[in-house]
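Hi R.,

Here's the chain you asked about this morning:
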Amino acid sequence: MSGDGSQGDTTQCNGVKNHRSALPAAMFSRNNVSMWSVLKKCIGMRLTEYMEHTYLIQKANTSQDSIHRMKCVAAFAVSAVASQWERTGKPFNPLLGETYELLREDLGFRWISEQVSHHPPVSAFHAEGIKSDFMFHGSIYPKLKFWGKSVEAEPRGIITLDLPLHNEAYTWTNPTCCVHNIIMGQLWIEQYGNVEIINHKTGEQCCLTFKSCGMFGKELHKVEGYILDKSKKKICALYGKWTECLYSVDPATFDTHRKSDIKHRKGSTQSNNAEEEPDEMPPPETETVQVIPGSELIWRISPRPDNSGKYYAFTSFALQLNELDAEMERVLPQTDCRLRPDIRALESGHIDVASAEKNRLEEKQRMAWKNRSKSNEEWKIRWFHQGPNPHTGAPDWLYNGSYWNRNYSQLPDIY
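And the predicted structure, written out as tokens:
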């Protein structure tokens, strides 16, 4: 395994297992083109970062009111994309058959994901509460569109959250993610599009709009929408920023506030700089979310650690994801991405080793594909299978339930 095995700084809290607070080495500058060409292909968000705000699921479980549960689920859906703020590197390129597990008893869940397809790239995941109080599962296979200076990732795949205690299931899809200035200039991210969360038991819906930044950047990061009952009546309004927070308020109050805000903007004088590039990062607003009187705070993002800028804009949770200790290494399957030599080398600051290992792994994957093609051998997906989503009927990837039996015989040698 490449790298020095160092896991960075760790913290101890009341006898609970240590979790690191830093990576073994700081990130490299994008100004160095050769280094950036490797980094942009290796560093980014893992699907597991969905689980950073698992407490919102647990909060929903304890509520006896379906509208309040929908608020919590909506906040969870918004918080799931918050980790991408300032994260402009391309996500890890998973190899076919690569897996990742995370067992966090302190946070009340365990997670397994597998790269189930290479062309097109599809990642399937399944998380469940330690107390069997929820199941969260789905698949991610974004459709990429290149627009000159930006790349847009349109989400495909259904996200499902089951709350057995309430016999409820919620489904939704993520908003579109766009990274600007991929050729030159300052990289920046925006999320936009409509997200519809459906409670399949009650018929209630949450319709959210992730707003594009607009010409003057006034809408950057904003998200707003309504929770509707089964007859489409507005029950409450939601608003905030996916990078920051989410509030709920009475819909009539929200509509009045929004009309006043639109009127104020139309009355204000705005000057458009004709020389300004449309992809330029909008200037940061001096104000955060303007809280409407009578609003209820549902979710607020945790502050990032002081050293986040040195470590790929990771949150404290993300810094812990690639930890590997001796006890863990004894039980992990050989396909777990913690064992990938290129990522371990990169994380430890060994950029040349990381680049060489990355090329070796990709060539090994190509040769394996050629050999299977010659022998008509089909790739065996280990932990998931294709089937209809139990709530929407749409094609989905479903967990087969056997990963945690720890029977890892006959796994492929992908590293």
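The radius of gyration is 22 Å.

Let me know if you need anything else.
M.
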